[in-house]
Amino acid sequence: xxxxxxxxxxxxxLLVVDSSGRPVPLGPAALEVAARRGEGxxxxxxxxxxxxxxxxxxxxxxxxxxxxxKTQQLEFGTRVCTGLDDVAADLRHWRGxxxxxxxxxxxxxxxxxxxxxxxxxxxxxxxRYTEMAETFRLTAAEQLTCGCHVHVAVEDDEEGVAVxxxxxxxxxxxxxxxxxSPFWLGRDSGHASYRAQAWNRWPSSGPNELFADAAAxxxxxxxxxxxxxxxxxxxxxxxxxxxxxxxxVEVRVADVALRAEDAVTLAGLVRGLVETAAxxxxxxxxxxxxxxxxxxxxxxxxxxxGLTGDLVHPATGRPAPAGAVVTALLAHVRPALAAAGDxxxxxxGVAAVLDRGTGADLQRRVFAATGDLTAVxxxxxxxxxx
Length: 386
Prior knowledge:
The protein has one domain (about 10-385): Creatine Kinase, Chain A, domain 2 (2-Layer Sandwich). The chain contains 15 helices and 11 strands. It has helices at about 25-35, 45-50, 85-105, 125-135, 140, 155-165, 170-180, 195-200, 215-225, 260-280, 290-305, 320-340, 345-355, 360-370, 375-385, and strands at about 10-15, 65, 75, 110, 145-155, 185, 185-190, 240, 250-255, 310, 320. The strands form 3 sheets. Strands 1, 2, 3, 4, 5, 8 and 9 form a 7-stranded antiparallel beta sheet that branches. Strands 6-7 form a two-stranded antiparallel ribbon. The chain has a two-stranded antiparallel ribbon with strand order 10-11. β10 (about 310) and β11 form a beta hairpin. About 50% of the residues are buried. The model is unreliable at about 55-60 (pLDDT under 50). Belongs to the glutamate--cysteine ligase type 2 family. YbdK subfamily. It is an enzyme of class 6 (ligase).
């Protein structure tokens, strides 16, 4: 049994944009700059690592900048952290280093989960990304989206699967809290998180039914691979999954947060969910018997309205005001937050989001005031680094 506070790590994807606010295919050039500084992995190095040709690589974004699916993106990961102060410091450090590398090639980075302005996404070179582009065609071609993935340590796969079974009903609330992609192809999508809609076009995405045990989880992954539809296990895009490379549960439902502190709040909430779920499992509390269709409906609704409308309450399966559902989430994890020393910071972070709104709300306010989507991007660049 884990006796210390569970470690946590965060991966973020960022848009590379020019001064006009348009995403530009300068991610690979920025990575060349970062690699010369010992802070990044070039596209070629990343591709070798993904193929297993480079033992020093591994394709993981921890502690360096790496490529993503599109050349208009950069990705990074924090260290394995114990305290949220360390998560915050790493997020700000790597956002800054990504921006410095982008500045050197005439661009900036913005924590936007989709591009407000119309853009033609360009695929990153490399064997794996090329195979994805050829296999999934328009789904892959249009997938210029930026997410935030939170890893939390688990003792083993059995504990990890028990956690997956118990956190699934709460994950749509995290989507609502982090919504940061209201615009798509130059127009308002009508969704607070349109990234979630675009992402769920992948055949392996979304919620799962309950797993009997870790063996059942791994059988499902094997069955998905056996269909020869997805290219590898890295494309097992469940809302939450067991990490293939780390002893962690990886929660993948969040938009990249516009503000770094909101990503810290997300990390604290995910760690609280994991610790709460593991404690329930050890105490023999059964996982909520909610069908995946209902979870998917709750996720769609969270993507649609963010915090501006009703969400599906995990305890009742009925609509309730977003603030009440978020408050229920905070109450659910509060003992775990207190045990980790996170209660005050996470509660304050949640209150701040409820008070001022999400990244999606800020984007829409800027557009309402200016009528200019490039102004939305410029405001996002500023917020990314505050």
